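Record filed below.
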Amino acid sequence: PVPYGFWYVGGNLSNGVIISDDEADEYEKGKDKTTWDYTTELKGNQFVWIPCTVDEYKKCTTWNNQTQTNTTLANSSWETTVENGEILQIEKYGGFYVGRYEAGLADTITETTQNQTYKTAGTIQVYNADGKPQSKAGLVPWNFIDWTHSKKNAEDMYNDNKYKNYVRSGLITGTQWDVMLNKMKEKLAITDADLTSSGNIGNYKDNKISYKGRKATATYNATNGWTLSPFSTQIEEGQTKQYSSSENGGELLTTGASSATEKYHIFDVAGSLWEWTEEASFYGGNTSTQYRVIRGGSYIYAYATYPVCYRNGPSAVSHTALNFGFRVVLYIK
């Protein structure tokens, strides 16, 4: 189902159906607009359809024959129930749309040209602000943003009069993350091994991937903690640096910069930025809505330590960091 205000770009249920909110991106016979080389030519925000049945729409606790508990493939317990509103979407339409890219900075926010330093939880950063995220290639990914702003901004992406009667947007849920990964595996876009050791599919500190885009470098020292440089001003082509297990560092790329990170036509679910989810995390023995689970790993950590299936938390909803971002999902009304 393609909702009002969106157009079919290309792809199929085997490799991923792409839609866009810009008519200029609409499918044209004889022209393949789904290729990685074409990503920066598309004008609109893009989403990919994740087909699933009600029976398939559930949280997953076993990945590559490893049970996910708060001592393996996770560092905390998490909320295991599924929201009824999500299930109604699956019953009615047989799937949901997920952002093709990690959220990019709103076009109303000026990209910083200064180093960004993160020292303590809750530090206010220039990007921890309101705005409508973008789901396009070649953008600065929206990091240094807490869960509260991520949720609001995701929901505000399509809340204007043009869209509000037809779609709504929101922050990706823990169930949707699990279903997305299992659909990628079912369609042979990733393997079981990729789920628990994600170096082949993501941008982590201890692997090298080829890219064409812009990058920012993260460094660490005991005095200042983590610092992220401004993004380069020019598009570059090359490979990211590989850091050893004893080194602290990483290179963050613009959205969709590497074809190696595109699976089922979705980019950067592994590595790059941790992504906030709606999923509540256990803290002090109880589920708390003030702590949330983040998913997907990070460009400053190792691919085997924090693979794409990993549940990381508890993260306070006010927490910001140079490796925290988010992804938008789209619901049809």
The chain has four helices and 20 strands. The first strand starts at residue 7 and ends at 10. The CA atoms of residues 50 and 96 lie 5 Å apart. Helices lie at 84-93, 147-156, 174-186, 192-196.
